[in-house]
Amino acid sequence: MKSEKEKMLAGELYQASDPELVQERLQARELTQLLNSSAPAEPENRVSLLRKLVGKAGKNPWIEVPFYCDYGYNIQMGEDCFFNFNCVVLDVCSVQLGDRVFIGPAVQIYTATHPLDAQERGAFWESGKPVSIGSDVWIGGGAILCPGVNLGDRVVVAAGAVVTKSFPSDVVIGGNPAKIIRYLSSKE
Q1: How many CB atoms lie within 10 A of CB 111?
Q2: Where does residue 37 rank: exposed (0-12), middle (13-18), buried (19+ CB within 10 A)?
Q3: Rounded CA Rg of the chain
Q4: CATH number at residue 123
Q5: Between β-strands 82-83 and 62-63, what pairing exists: parallel, antiparallel or unpaired?
Q6: Catalytic residue among 114, 153, 162, 168
Q7: CA 103/CA 51 separation, integer angstroms
Q8: How many domains does the chain have?
Q9: Is 114 known to be catalytic?
């Protein structure tokens, strides 16, 4: 039989109150507390803490603090990725970031979701859907990416957008729910 963690990672219904998951979230909270109190004048320490928190961080990762996440180990960052201040990543499932992903302040990335059925939800069942972000993506401040979203390469997400579905490469998206505002050429 699958553990609650295995169910979580597979995107199936699971109980977040499982002792193993509670302990792993506690470990992530302790690391984010250290990260969030790290001195700006000591960037090596901040990067070291970040590498302990996330599953993978390519070269030159940076997170402005404060930063919050559920587990951390489900976050995979490519090279030269940047999170601005006050971002939240609910990483009950995989969050994949390509290279050179720039994330504005107060951006929220959610993989966690809950059943529509009130009885299941009331019994504290939850699940998740992975989020994937291509390379050379810019996500404007205050944007929200919902569970299951996939963004192609070179996507620009307007500030405040609520992204509820996936989008192909080379587009500017915005609004609530987000839609394509324009297509980008390779020379822009």
Answers
A1: 27
A2: exposed
A3: 17
A4: 2.160.10.10
A5: parallel
A6: 114
A7: 18
A8: 1
A9: yes
